[in-house]
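Exam revision sheet. Question 4 asks you to relate a sequence to its structure. Input first:
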Amino acid sequence: MLLFHATAILAAVTLLARSLLHGRIGLIAAFGFVIGAVIFAGDLTLRQYAGHSLFPMAAPTGGTLMILSWLAVTLAAVVGKR
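Answer key, structure tokens:
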């Protein structure tokens, strides 16, 4: 999960640098990938090794944030082409 989204972060930043994505929306999406992946993987890691969760509903929150980031990248690509 982290490896796949790390590639997405690098791709979003590269597309932002080449002005192929809308700047603000693309940046929000890239940060959403980072924060969502940290929350999701952090919660799963804490559950496995420490026996408790990060906070209630942390893994679903991180997953939802990553899904919203994918939608934001799509929106940034559509808006950026105009």
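Marking note for examiners. The chain has one domain: 2-80.
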